[in-house]
Design goal:
The protein has 146 residues and is α/β, with parallel strands linked by helices. The protein has a single domain, classed as Rossmann fold. Helices cover 36% and strands 19% of the residues. It is built from 5 helices and 6 strands; from the N terminus they run E-H-E-H-E-H-E-H-E-E-H. Strands 3-2-4-1-5-6 form a 6-stranded mixed β-sheet, sandwiched between helices. Helix 2 links the parallel strand 2 and strand 3. The longest helix is centred in the first third of the chain and has 16 residues.
């Protein structure tokens, strides 16, 4: 399964590649990691865009999951094939990156017409969209009792 996590809320500014997360974005990233853990997902790998906001999102989310984060320039912007980026990394791989690239990749893989929210999460398994969660859904999962 390939998991796609769009970077969390980031500060405005330039240069674009150096934009940092806001406090809200940091919380969104932690919630995403906690929610993924609550879903019982055990990631084999996490690959992030090298842009600061995506890399920080990945690191904060993966801190809850015990997974090292690597970077790949293909996730920094422009069309990419998630299957190529995830190839050989395991059965459960999370990619962290940007819009509109992630929504377009989801469409190419599944035919689904989606627009991923900042800190939104999607999962695709063999061409089928299995999970699509908004940041509010992830927060609810992360903080649910039980």
């Amino acid at each position: 399964m390939i998991w796609l996590l769009r970077h969390a809320e980031a500060k405005e500014g330039t240069p674009d590649a150096e934009r940092k997360l806001t406090k809200k974005g940091e919380g969104q990233s932690r919630a995403a990691g906690a929610a993924i853990g609550r879903l019982g997902v055990r990631l084999d790998a996490c690959v992030s865009s090298p842009k600061v906001r995506a890399l920080d999102t990945a690191r904060l989310a993966c801190a809850h999951l015990g997974v090292e984060v690597t970077t790949d320039e293909r996730l920094a912007g422009g069309p990419f094939d998630p299957r190529e980026v995830a190839a050989g990394l395991g059965d459960q791989v999370m990619l962290v990156g940007h819009e509109p690239d992630f929504s377009m990749a989801l469409h190419r893989m599944t035919g689904a017409q989606v627009r991923m929210k900042k800190a939104g999460l999607a999962a695709v398994d063999r061409g089928e969209l299995k999970v699509l969660l908004r940041p509010t859904d992830l927060q609810a999962l992360a903080t649910a009792e039980g």
